[in-house]
Amino acid sequence: MRENELKIEEIEIDSLVPYENNAKKHTREQIDAVEASIKEFGFRNPVIVWRNADGLPEVVAGHARITAAKNLGMKKVPCVACDDLSDAQRRALTLVDNQTTMMTGWDEDLLAYELDVLADEFDMGDFGFSEELEPDGLSAVEEDDPEPEVTICRAKRGDVFVLGNHRVMCGDSTCPEDVEKLCGGVSRT
């Protein structure tokens, strides 16, 4: 594990160099949500920068936060440097920082609960949360969702199915007669 000391420094937004190969797309909706977050909570997540060959702070992670901060009239943003990384590591971190956050989802019950608790204090839609979840914690269900098709079971007690070297029986494992039938007439007791 790589150990490093994080030192936060305020850097002028205009001196930050956006990474020209940043593969992450940022929508207007996302930038609006980031702006709302900064307005409500402050700038709490520092930008990650790497000093390029010219010694300028090139953005590794935080492009959307910088755009939002600039839109809000901020002149400086908190940054942490990753100058100890190689160029390849810095490029990989740019991708990994975004990818790892996209690899998970929400626990919908807990999310619905938290959104419900916060509903009186915040309009969570300002932060990018949609109306997909009902306040009672249940996922919204379309009225037109089709009913699942019911499969009729044709197996009855005593039926034995041979699957290769395996035998499966519709029966009661506590009934000696069923166990004997499953074992091909050989008593296992």
Features:
alpha+beta; 3 domains; 15% strand; 6 strands; 5 helices
**Taking strands numbered 1, 2, ... along the chain, how are they ordered across the largest sheet?**
1-4-2-3
- What oligomeric state do the depicted chains represent? single chain
Taking the sheet with the most strands, its summary is: 4 strands, mixed
C-alpha Rg (nearest Å): 29 Å
Number of domains: 3
The overall pLDDT average reads 86
Share in helix? 25-40%
The outline comes out as elongated
Which ranges are low-confidence, i.e. pLDDT below 50, for 5 or more consecutive residues?
A: 134-141
Name the CATH superfamily assignment of the largest domain. Answer: Conserved hypothetical protein from pyrococcus furiosus pfu- 392566-001, ParB domain
Q: At the third CATH level, what is the topology name of the largest domain?
A: Conserved hypothetical protein from pyrococcus furiosus pfu- 392566-001, ParB domain
Tell me the total number of β-strands. Answer: 6
The fraction of residues assigned to DSSP E strands is 15-25%
CATH first level of the largest domain: Alpha Beta
What is the number of helical segments per DSSP (H or I, 4+ residues)?
5
Terminal Cα span:
56 Å
What are the secondary-structure elements, in order, as H or E?
Answer: EHEEHEHHEEH
For the record, the CATH architecture of the largest domain stands as Alpha-Beta Complex
Structural class: alpha+beta
